[in-house]
Amino acid sequence: MHTAEVTMGCIKTLAVLATLAGLQACTLTKTVVHNFADLDDHRIFANREVPRGGPTSALRGLPREPWFLAELSVPDEKGAAWPLDDYLAHTRTAAFVVLHEDRVVLERYGRGYDRHSLLNSFSIAKAVMSALVGIALAEGRIASLDTTVASVCPEFAGKPYGAATVRELLTMTSGIADAPSLLPGRADVYYGDDLRAVALNARAPASNRHPWRYSETDVQVLGFVLERAVGMPVSQYLAARLWQPLGMESKALWALDREGGSEKTFCCLSARARDFARFGQLMRDGGRWHGRQIVPAAWATRSVLPGIEALDRHTHQHLWWTPHVDAGHPDRRGDFYAYGHNGQYLYVNPAARLVIVKFSETNRQDPVPMFRALADAVMAPQHLAEIDRLDVPLLAAR
Questions:
Q1: Which domains does the chain have, with CATH numbers?
Q2: pTM of the entire predicted model
């Protein structure tokens, strides 16, 4: 290559880096100041409120915890047995809610959080996004899974994401690489103050193949498509289609990239643990809520898009996860979960009629064996009888 060409290439590279440095100045400051992502990060971000509305849907408590849960021993990911409360403490659990049918059979809070705390769901928000996209498709607001980004958001025409389809964004198979970043990890998207610019600066795939790659930006671009397709902010659509119909007990907050900006649709929806349990209950029941189909049944049962096995052999489907089959997870039970990077879980077990919310601050755990042990304990006939017996006085009082 001639010296002049090399020089011109260097100049172009420096220009790109200078532009990125300018875009990332505020992001770098946030990264340095806040350092680690936390459960209460709604306090450091601009947010858009998701208002509740109408009567709160009932979740019945029990007059006391069932005796078998107080004595329950649960396994960790290595098979070691723990008393349940010790396991929750060991995994730095801030909120833990076990919902059977519409009954809260166990509830724990710790580390300064309580029932009224708004908790950052991190990537559990992706599962919420999936439900909203399924609703928008059923309403005809998004024409089909093969709709391209540029056909809805013309500013992406000629950009790598322009030709990506809704299907590829939902399955994280766009193959598009993130924009060059001077920041570690995913700080440019988590703390970024112009996510549209991040997406517009993404890099084209190296080939025509569309391999699976966990991508925050795919889901962020999906948020841009949803917002444009429904003609309102994503938070407003969430309020109208899910938050208010489900009778959530509290408002939620969806973090924005900047004041008045875009929702960080790949993460950062903060709400109460019980309200996340209500969302799990909706998905457990195939998208139906009190006799009304809220999310299309095929979408809620995750039968529209194929599952894709990730590197850890768990299956990614509709922005949810399905445990893999091995010695620790010996069978396919139809259970599935949403996961946030720092130990947030929304676990759904339709066969056991169970939903578990676990918000932690550690990523050194795989609580699926514990979730399944809890489901098995609840499903034992004598234990179901005990839950029903404790529930009778509450039912009689209604």
A1: 3-37+122-134+144-229 (1.20.58.710), 60-118+269-397 (3.40.710.10)
A2: 0.88
